[in-house]
Amino acid sequence: MSNVYQTPESNLVNENVSTGDYGSVEKALRGEYQFTIGSILSEAWAKTGGSKWIFMLGFILYFLTFVGIIIALGIVIAGLTAVTQEPAIVGFFQFVIQLGINLIVMPMVMGIFMMGVRRSVDAPISSGMIFNYFSKMLPLFVAVILINVLVIFGFILLVIPGIYLMISYGFAMPLIVEKGMRPWQAMETSRKAITHRWFSVFFLFIVMFVIVMIAMFTVIGLIWVLPMLMIAYGILYRNVFGVEATTIIE
What we know:
Layout: H1 25-29, H2 37-48, H3 52-83, H4 87-120, H5 137-157, H6 160-168, H7 172-178, H8 183-195, H9 198-218, H10 222-241, H11 245-249
Helix pairs in contact: 2-10, 3-4, 3-10, 4-5, 4-10, 5-6, 5-7, 5-8, 7-8, 9-10
Keywords: Membrane, Transmembrane, Transmembrane helix
InterPro entries: DUF975
Protein name: Glycerophosphoryl diester phosphodiesterase membrane domain-containing protein
């Protein structure tokens, strides 16, 4: 008997999982990968059909969960403020709560990105995937802290190092989730691989940003654009690092 409470799943891709010759970590570190902005976006657009509502439900679940967390923590802060008026104590708890939000949110964000990775190889996806990666909560959190510190430090120095690191670390998070790497290992793997085609990746991200800005003027366009860009990110990751068999069949 089917589970009526199960989140929607993309049945269009169940029988035709792509196992083509894509990238690998070894090839990525040697710079042995190629892509064009046009090919990434055109393939992503083609794969958006039949999956956009699954992505949108994932975004909605993420938004509702995030709002619920904010409301709950807001109540906690209000209670603490009622108990003590000491600014240092309230500030400390606000800091701890902010860390807690990041701990919870990052695995959910990666769930959405991993939907794009799985869609890139025509593997089944479901909106419930946003809840699949809480086991990676701590390494993701550590990576976020390290990346933010290094990127901010780079901007303080000369700006350009900050921009370089911000783009170069763009695949550190999925490498932690999909390849099981440690935070620093994932960061360095991403940096070394992306450096070979840094400008190509940079301009792809710029184009993706512009597309989002244009779609925001119509609002309804985001229904197509947001899933497409998640898939585009997944396609780029697939072309550079490949996708593990365990990711396809999980």
